[in-house]
Amino acid sequence: MEGNQSHFPKKSSSFSSTRDEKHREIDRNLSLGSIKLEQGREKKEKHGEDTIKEEGDEEAAAKQEGTRNGEEAEASFATISEDIDKFISVLTIDDGQDQSGEPPEIPESTIEKFVALAEKEIVKYEAGDAKWSSDRDDLSLLDAIDRISKLASAMTRFSSESKYNQAMNRSGSLLHHSMCFLEDEFYSLLQDPRAKQDAGSLSLKSKRQSSFSRLQESERSVPPSSESSSGECSPAYPPETVERLHGIADAMISAGYHIECCQVFAVARRNAFEAGLPNLGFEKVSIDDVVKMAWESLESEIATWIRAFRHIVTAAFTVERHLCEAVFDGHHAVSDRLFRGFVRGATTQLLTFAEAVAMTKRSAEKLFKVIDIYETLRDVTPAVDVLLPDQAEQDEHSIIADPKEEISSVRCRLGEMAVAIFRDLESSIKADNSKIPVPGGAVHPLTRYVMNYLKYACEYKNTLEQVFKEHKHSEKTTSHDEDGKVARQGGGGGTDLNNSGNRDNSCDHNPFAAQLMQALKLLHSNLMSKSRLYKDQALCNIFLMNNGRYAAKKVKGSPEIHQLLGETWYRRRSSELRQYHKNYQRETWSRVLACLRDDGLQVKGSVAKPVLKERFKSFNAMMEEIHKTQSTWVVSDEQLQSELRVSVSAVVVPAYRSFLGRFSQYLDPGRQTEKYIKFGPEDLENMIDELFDGNPSATASKRRP
């Protein structure tokens, strides 16, 4: 696009004259205009301007004289403009050839006067002595400049005619001067969107060298306005400013100066965009800064970037498109090209940050922010498609990639990063090979980490499913081998009900669900290995129960995970937990209940007191040991803790109460009863209620029956 070129080309060789030569021409033109006006004043003075006789009225007389001279100049300018229009029409009809084949005679004096007056008019605006006129169309500056352009263009056809050379040089020089002025004015209006009706004076306040004379400079910097609305990239232009910008753009394009016009507009809008980014809370940072940034800081920057990017695409781009269409109304190709260039530059600048995030070192905690950026790019794509419909022909001169392709490319890299981070969870699980058992058989930190991570990840279920489907080929590696390893490692303290043979078939069609299942298998395998670190098999089952219940509860509490794993997975996990529960009761309480059986107590029809006493002693010792040990065990899930206590009480207390009822009478009242019957049924209930509290200081309550 022309707006991105480094230098402003000159329009023709006639503009390459030195500044001194140009100024001499301007001075000569102005002197011609002055002579014309002086002659008019002399005539007026000879016809009775001496009527102002009173002393002290010189100032009023001067004002009156100036007004009349101005009226005469305007009338003269209007008359000469009509003559120029007639001459232009003659030049353009049948290529300006009369019946004899000769080009028309050039009215040199008329052109000289027109050039002088037009030059003087432009100088007045440049100096700030005149303001844009909206109520005198016949004398408006843009009309005069349009007439200059048409005159120069019409005479170009007769460049071989020597008699046109002087007029061509004069009109060309004037056109160059007027274009310099319009470019300055265009720049000034774009620079300050608060400009009102007195914009004609802005060119003096913010004067800078025209681009025609600064071919060595690659670009100009348009300082932002000091006042801007919070949350906006740049202040809005008032309607009168937009209208004036349109008039200038139309004049410059009609005169063939579309390159210069587009360059000024493109650079001004780009700089206004960059200056307005801080209003959205976003500061430009380099790729190196992003890569080296601490995660806490980068996390905050990502949140700010997301808000800024969404606002720019959904709001600021729409405003920019309307501005381009309004300023370049009637020149759709120009406005479309400028808008596309603006969007290309803005998105490329903003996407640099997102691309830098994708280049940072992978870590588990980055997954969610990476997905946030991915979703942002995905969600704005329809808006970008509407703003930038596909073109039949791409701009071959653009060095910046198409915004839609850039967004898609960065989104793809972020998707790959998200898949890789999620797959890294497998490595984290495998790497946790600590040989120190968790005290009390509590929930292992690995279980908490993995399940919470999966729960939060599944809050992005739809996005992760999309990402994994898009990148299923890149992430399909050794899943089948891993399934075999997990199946082989799953023996020991329980049955692995999560092996590949029992997998929900829906996972085969959902790469993310399959990856989720794979992570759970690895977690299960790791926990099975850790359960073998406990020498007490009852505690081993408590550990498996704690971790299994924690995982199942997380799944049940997350509709997303539950939907991915399916009801079958949950039922199998529940069945597995029931098996751990049975194993615990068998390992702990089967020996206790054996003391309360009738077998072996009667010899030849009578109760053997020594055996009965030994049974009570064994029961008491076992209960004290179980209470002492298992009160230090931890079951943090209140429901599971209650279920365990209730199930134990339901088996042990009734059996003990029945045993007492049948055999306590065979002990002598007094010392024997006190010695062998230490606990009543209520005492047992209290002891059982103190199990799994993780309280090593708990002591048994002793009460006589």
TrEMBL record:
* Low complexity bias: start-end ranges: 221-235
Q: Which domain of life is it from?
A: Eukaryota
UniProt record, GO biological process? exocytosis; protein transport
Q: Does the keyword Secreted apply?
A: no
- GO terms for cellular component: exocyst
Q: Which UniProt keywords apply?
A: Exocytosis, Protein transport, Transport
Q: Name the Pfam families on file.
A: Exo70_C (PF03081), Exo70_N (PF20669)
Mention one GO molecular function: phosphatidylinositol-4,5-bisphosphate binding
Q: Does the keyword Transport apply?
A: yes
Composition-biased stretches (Basic and acidic residues): 18-28, 38-71, 471-486
* Region feature Disordered, mapped onto this chain: 1-74, 198-237, 471-505
- Positions of the Exocyst complex subunit Exo70 C-terminal domain: 304-690
Gene3D superfamilies from the UniProt entry = Exocyst complex component Exo70 (1.20.1280.170)
The record's family statement is:
Belongs to the EXO70 family.
| Protein's job | Component of the exocyst complex.
Protein name, UniProt field: Exocyst subunit Exo70 family protein
Origin organism is Musa balbisiana
> Which lineage ranks, top first, belong to the organism behind this chain?
Eukaryota, Viridiplantae, Streptophyta, Embryophyta, Tracheophyta
